[in-house]
Design goal:
- The chain has 299 residues and is mainly beta.
- Helices cover 0% and strands 45% of the residues.
- The chain contains no helices and 22 strands.
- A nine-stranded antiparallel β-sheet has the order 10-11-14-15-2-19-18-17-16, with no helix packed on it.
- A hairpin with a 6-residue loop joins strand 20 and strand 21.
- The radius of gyration is 21 Å and the shape is globular.
């Protein structure tokens, strides 16, 4: 049984991912002018990037699959270890108190999270699976549990070797750029993949949408991608690719419904955090070490 029956937990719990080896008893404006009014407009060159762009989320066919797990996904790393000995486990428990097992698997588990409202619990995984046309391949996936009754089977999606994969906390949805079949392998060089697209997928409904309206090659921001309420995501729009790489890369705060994407910055976000009190506010530090406050209502 991959998930454990009859478990019920309150939302205020700590999630743990544990690697268990069963046979070995094993149960990651600026400092000189502090009075300057901060805001994303200070990083925007006049006329170069619009303050807002109309966007839509259009229906898409998600390149998702259910892969057949290999008999021993660890054979390449530890040939001497039997398949059932190396396992990853997801636990929930009260801080300072006891823990209980939610999920047990041979998949590599990582990044457990709670939804802001405590309604869902999620964990990412990486796995070897038999995937056409030339499997086995490494895949990334996401499991999302109903926190009100963790005995229910989780919602799940899996995608082959995504170039980026960023789930909403709790796992109700995921934003990712897939690199999926068909994969073209030739003796002369490495495999090639289709042109990337940015997808927003609902785990429960298996409905996917692709973002239209922003120019260039789109990808999730490297951090603070999702607002706590799930109403906005930060997206990078790479439009000036060249031999030296894209620099700088415009960042936009994009609603997860049709609307206006607001320009955020053309400088790198060294650190970023959404307000836990007002999910429409984002604070970030750019590569000039300036601290900015961004309001999704006004830009």
């Amino acid at each position: 049984m991959p998930f454990i029956n009859s478990l019920r937990f309150p939302a205020a719990l700590l999630l743990l991912v544990w690697l268990a080896n069963i046979s070995c008893s094993g149960d990651k404006d600026k400092e000189e002018n502090p009075t300057a009014t901060p805001g994303p407009s200070a990083t925007r060159e006049p006329g170069s990037t619009p303050a807002s762009v109309a966007i839509t989320w259009e229906p898409a066919q998600p390149p998702l699959f259910t892969g057949q797990e290999l008999d021993n996904p660890y054979a390449a790393q530890w040939p001497q270890v039997p398949p059932d000995n190396m396992r990853w486990r997801l636990y929930a428990g009260v801080i300072g108190g006891s823990r209980q097992l939610i999920y047990d698997s041979r998949r590599w588990l990582a990044r457990p999270s709670w939804a802001a409202d405590g309604s869902r619990v999620s964990v990412m995984y990486s796995s070897s699976a038999t995937v056409p046309p030339n499997g086995p391949n490494i895949v990334n996936g996401l499991l999302s549990f109903d926190a009100r009754d963790l005995s229910k089977a989780p919602s799940e999606i899996a995608v082959q070797i995504p170039t980026s994969f960023d789930p909403q906390a709790g796992g109700a949805r995921a934003l990712f750029v897939p690199s999926t079949a068909p994969i073209i392998s030739t003796p002369a060089g490495p495999p090639t993949f289709p042109n990337p697209i940015l997808l927003l997928v609902d785990l429960g409904k298996k409905i996917a949408q692709t973002l239209a309206g922003l120019p260039g090659r789109l990808s999730p921001a490297p951090q603070a991608t999702w607002s706590p309420d799930g109403e906005h995501v930060i997206v990078a729009s790479i439009t000036n690719e060249g031999t030296g790489g894209p620099n700088p890369v415009p960042l936009y705060v994009v609603p997860t419904r049709n609307g206006q994407a607001r320009f955020l910055s053309k400088t790198a976000m060294l650190y970023a955090a959404w307000s836990p009190v007002d999910p429409r506010l984002l604070a970030y530090i750019d590569d000039t070490r300036a601290l900015w406050l961004f309001d999704t209502r006004t830009g």
